[in-house]
């Protein structure tokens, strides 16, 4: 029963995380974030404040995945489903854009863009999807390590990874060649192990919902304060040009603590059953599709312009409050549209599954899943 409650809570959190991602992308596309070396406007300060709390979204998503995958059997079909979902969007959206005559492919980059469409994982068409699917591939190896290592071995492995990927870069104002800002598989493995460790030993990050919420809020405020302080220092002295951008990195220490706080909040909170929570659980399976559709290379830098230019939401007013209302309208409309499209995609996939379920190919995949799920050492 406890497991089911946590799963239901995390499904709600997954929806919140993808909405946070949409907010982050809106802010970056509309220029409503601090710019190094440029005096900030009220809209940019407001946008930076919002980003400081939403920047935890990807970390939270990976923590949720690690929490459940660490106890799940390996399924080849699940990886194939993720790949099929990626290809559904990379190819279908491209075809639709070409037919509509709105594709941005020029003669000079036709070969490169085609490569991005046909090999979306290798070309990092979607940087998150590339690392996320690779995480699924190596999850069985990570799970075996978590299963057979002692508690101290896992703990000190995580501490070592945190020192290497998080703590050093959070205090040393120098860009390191090995630091990918937390946008890659290395950091996701670290998050995965943290979540697996929490689940295996039922680790209480904090005492309960209240302290978890406090950690999330303090981390967000701290992230905003660091952003503002180093932006100001850079503006007046020209120093810390790189470090002024570090609070936006996924492996920044306050981004990690904020994610752990939010993750812990939904782990402990008691969610009342109402229309909102039920809707969130229904929408959760479509969250990855929301990401894939709006982050297609033909859409990612254009959806805000489309919504504004077509008169759907209008232009944002110059005030900070006007920007916030414009952001809310844009994000909600985009979210609903992407959910609808991914629902259609899910129905197509289900139809294909039913039609092909009796074929040799599908039966073969079922046999492979069954074989991979068996622990030969037990």
TrEMBL record:
Pfam families found in the cross-reference section: Acyl_transf_3
TM helices/strands, residue ranges: 12-29, 49-70, 82-105, 125-142, 154-175, 205-230, 242-263, 323-344
Domain of life: Bacteria
Protein's UniProt keywords contain Ribonucleoprotein: no
Record keywords, A-Z: Acyltransferase, Membrane, Transferase, Transmembrane, Transmembrane helix
Gene Ontology MF terms in the entry: acyltransferase activity, transferring groups other than amino-acyl groups
Domain Acyltransferase: 9-315
Keyword Transmembrane helix appears in the UniProt entry: yes
Protein name from the UniProt record: Surface polysaccharide O-acyltransferase, integral membrane enzyme
């Amino acid at each position: 029963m406890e497991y089911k409650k946590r799963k239901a809570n995390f499904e709600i959190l997954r929806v919140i995380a993808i909405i946070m991602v949409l907010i982050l992308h809106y802010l970056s596309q509309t220029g409503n974030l601090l710019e190094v070396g440029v005096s900030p406007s009220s809209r940019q300060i407001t946008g930076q404040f919002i980003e400081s709390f939403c920047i935890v979204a990807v970390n939270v998503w990976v923590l949720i995945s690690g929490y459940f995958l660490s106890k799940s059997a390996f399924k080849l079909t699940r990886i194939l489903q993720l790949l099929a979902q990626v290809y559904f969007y990379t190819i279908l959206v491209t075809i639709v854009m070409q037919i509509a005559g709105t594709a941005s492919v020029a003669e000079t980059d036709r070969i490169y863009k085609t490569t991005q469409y046909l090999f979306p994982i290798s070309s990092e068409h979607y940087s998150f999807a590339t690392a996320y699917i690779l995480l699924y591939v190596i999850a069985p190896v990570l799970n075996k390590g978590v299963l057979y290592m002692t508690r101290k071995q896992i703990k000190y492995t995580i501490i070592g990874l945190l020192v290497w990927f998080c703590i050093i870069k959070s205090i040393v104002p120098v860009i390191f060649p090995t630091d990918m800002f937390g946008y890659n598989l290395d950091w996701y493995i670290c998050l995965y192990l943290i979540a697996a460790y929490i689940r295996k030993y039922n680790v209480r990050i904090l005492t309960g919902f209240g302290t978890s919420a406090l950690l999330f809020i303090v981390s967000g405020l701290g992230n905003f304060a660091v952003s503002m302080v180093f932006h100001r220092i850079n503006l007046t002295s020209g120093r810390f040009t790189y470090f002024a951008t570090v609070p936006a990195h996924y492996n920044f220490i306050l981004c990690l603590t904020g994610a752990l706080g939010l993750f812990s909040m939904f782990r402990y909170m008691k969610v009342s059953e109402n229309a909102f929570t039920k809707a969130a659980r229904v929408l959760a399976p479509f969250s990855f599709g929301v990401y894939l559709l709006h982050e297609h290379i033909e859409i990612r830098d254009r959806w805000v312009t489309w919504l504004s230019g077509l008169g759907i939401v209008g232009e944002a007013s110059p005030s900070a409050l006007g920007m916030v209302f414009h952001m809310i309208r844009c994000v909600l409309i985009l979210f609903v549209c992407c959910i609808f499209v991914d629902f259609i995609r899910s129905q197509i996939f289900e139809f294909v599954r039913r039609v092909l379920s009796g074929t040799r190919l599908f039966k073969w995949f079922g046999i492979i899943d069954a074989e991979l799920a068996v622990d030969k050492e037990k």
